[in-house]
Amino acid sequence: MLNPQTDDLIMYPGLRKSPPLLIVLSGPSGVGKDVIVARMKERGMPFHFAITATTRLKRDYEQDGVHYYFRTVEQFQEMLAQDELLEHALVYGNHYGPPKFGVRDALARGEDVILRIDVQGAEYIQKTIKGAILVFVAPGSYDELISRLVNRGTESPESLAVRLATYEKEMQAATNFDYIVINRQGELDTAVDLIESILKTEKAKVKPRQVKL
Q1: Confidence at residue 178, expressed as pLDDT on a 0 to 100 scale
Q2: What's the structural domain count of the chain?
Q3: Disulfide-capable partner of 48 in 35, 42, 106, 139 (CB 3.0 to 4.6 Å)?
């Protein structure tokens, strides 16, 4: 009886264990990226979540080191000066950027890495990190996006207007991504199912991607 862990490599000597993936989840603000990651964790999907550093204020439900690394502008600038960030962007008046150390360590352990960042940051990653997989998360409709932003109760009228004003530009960026996942209201598991399928597809490739930081 064949051992699927080893005999496939004996029968097909050109094959090798798939290297770890770097998956970038991006899309318009309020599209549900955080909720998708949370559901992936609930399902026990094996991956390392790369936490992003930010200078924005912490929301009531958020924890430092869990949702984001909350830092002052001075602390963020110090990280930037020491080249400790994979990418960085100024989004809606706040700085964002994922530290390199967590990503490097996870990839070295052979773990897939999920990176949740804004569209601007995703485009930078695409240009600078070979092998990254870009997944664009889109809302079911413009009205759904407005509803999500309003219902989370964290936006002032001014900040809401700014986020909606950038929506069209962010949606246009979807054509530069590898995959698109529509996160429709009430269909979260469908979106997560598709992301899981994307990961399985990438790992099944004869010549898988090699991430190079």
Answers
A1: 97
A2: 1
A3: 106
